[in-house]
Amino acid sequence: MKLKEVLKQTRKIRIPQKGYPVERTIAEELLQQIGGSIDIQAVKDMDMKSEKWAFYIAVADENLKKLLSQMRVQLPSEKEWIAFSVDENMCCWLISSKPYFLYAAFSYVMENMLDSDVSRLKKWVRKIAFDVEKSTFDLFLTQYARLIRKFKREHYIREYARLGFTHIEVNALAFPFPYEKGIPGEFYSHFYTYAPALDQFVQSSLNHGTYPAEYLQANLELLKKNAQLVVKYGLVPGLLCFEPRSVPESLFEKYPTLRGARVDHPFRSFKPRFNLSIVHPVVQNHYAELMTNLMKNVPELEFLTIWTNDSGAGFEYTKSLYVGRNGGAYLIREWKDDEQIAKASASNIVNFFRLMRDAASQINPKFRVITRLEPFYGERQYLWPNIRERIDVEVNSLLASGWENNYQHPEYRDVNVLGSAYHNTLKDEEKAPMEELHLRNSRSLFFHSFCAHTNHEPLLGIPFPWLTHEKLHALFKGGIKYLAHMGGIHPPDKVPYAVNQEVFRLFQIDPELDIDQTVHIIGEKYAGREHVESLVRGWKLVEQAIRCFMPLPLYSHFGVVWQRLFVRPLVPDIDRIPEEERSYYEKFMCTSIHNPNRVDLAKDVLFELVSKEYAYKAYTRIDENVWKPLDEGIGLFKREMEETHQLENIQGFKVFEDQYFRARALKCLYETLRNTAVWIYAIHTYLGTKEKLERAHCRNLLNEMIEREIHNARELSDIWRTAPIEWLIVSGSEETPFIHGENFAELLEKKIMLMEKHTNDEPFIDSGYMFRVSENPYEES
User: Fold this and answer.
1) Per-position DSSP letters for 18-48, written without gaps between them
2) SS3 letters for 410-445?
3) How far apart are CA 92 and CA 95, in angstroms?
4) pLDDT at residue 781, as a whole number
5) pLDDT tens across 583-619, in order?
6) pLDDT of residue 455
């Protein structure tokens, strides 16, 4: 008898009386799927026993483990697990070691095992590959792409549970823009839209009335809604906050002695922003009260991830503060040497982590604080020994110092990477510091990313299943138990063929899987047996192009959106375009009015983003290695789309249509990035030489680049008009600096018009652009 036949005969669904919400969630879904006059009954532990045609759903306790042992089901002792069993009474048992794996087990049974013979399901047990898979900086649920159109919140969270995730961040602003006030020409206030601080949800006795009550209430209600859905599916809710974040100046007018560090960026911010001095007992009471008040509203919260020293947050006297070591009056006196300051800073950091952990633990004793190590490169030697007892770190590498890239690109060994899909290996040396933390009851959560963020933002659904597997395999073989997935998952209603996510899902319950066989199984599920080979071949070609792409710092991660590369004109002299004609994209760029990036793609504030040498290497490698496999993949998807359409094979047609448009969009993204590299190389080489032949060569490169980018913009416009799928992250409300709006195609037309108009301008960059001052009294008219 097959499992689906057993389920048709099921007459009872049983869940524990004292259990978890996910057990009832699954029971109700099961009831909906099998139908019939079946009741869901919550029973005591002692009444959980084998019954004819019953279905038990439970998170394991000691009584259940004993019962399973009597049924000769061997459970792993050293790993988390899921189990499904059909006993001699045709009684089904769906059990997991933790509530956050129960829905994944249920989904796997219902999607993959219905045609299995029950004789093979008496002792089905699977060890979970990773004990924790935490979402971090979720673009869609909580961060700056939360405005994505037609977002299905519960559908999205359910997908997390289905995939085998465990911990989900839930704090998000309920408004398109943050409350933080800026001044004209300044961009800095926009950075407060992501990873909102604790004081954006609750208030304390100290800051009461600082923010409008209706603003705080709306944010809190969204947080609570997210948390309720997360708990409904067995997952663990938590927070991601930039802390200690700046506070409005009005608070210092009332409490001037509580001023802490200046935490803004002096180039990006036009006014100094300060946080509260967390050394001061009053401020410590304030933070403890904020944490307590939030926990009272959402006692299920189990972690606080703290990012810092960026986006208006920072710790006093740490080295990586943008304005340098600074802070309030209380941590250390003036004229101390760097070592003494670093020691005091490290102690202050750890004390804050403990304060947050201990305040939250009064309500949830399992609460953990998580941080990143990169901002603390100046204090790390003093901070590291004190990271212990439920203070964890999330990292790309425990070996890196600061923000250095210390892993090699999979194809180009002279290019260092960190954190994106190109970071697909793990060094053996990572084990020692990881184990050191483990002995101190602290965790190392390693980043990985198989979706848009850090890879192909703002595109959705780009397939690279083998790269995804390589990182998972490296982490598993390296003994890593805890993961942090960066950027959120692809919304399942917008990306129905998310092969990377499926690889992770299957890896979670079978880390020894054969990746080629697994990709074939996924492909057959999507396209059917007749067309699976073509689908897999297409994925291989697209991934070959991805592997051979040479990323551009910042731009390849999120800068295509933040710096508006898709819609800004790439012309020889950007500054030649009048400001009013550039305003359609500049007002949404993540730049201040004097940022040289407005006229020089190689620069951002005082950083050199991309050298002309790197740019040359990038575009030549892209031309040599990317276009051939990518064009072959696009052509293959198109042929299969047309063939399946002629055959009226709806299943096959939909998947090939979907992949065809996504691959075309990927080519457009890579073309814009390639052309950005050409711009950097050609403009800077032209301006750096007087040689006529070299200048002529650069001029030819620019002309060709402009022609290609105009064609590319038209291709993007065509995809926008004709694609029946969601391939781009688009706002459902309004355009912001972090997400495109519904006017995307209109902006492309403006780009094309400006590029055609300014093609023949003389290459020029004003090296003094950042020193411009409006109405400068010393400038000759």
Assistant:
1) S--HHHHHHHHHHHHHH-SS-EEEEE-GGG-
2) CCCCCCEECCCCCCCCCCHHHHHHHHHHHHCCCCEE
3) 10
4) 64
5) 999 999 999 999 999 999 999 999 999 999 999 999 9
6) 97
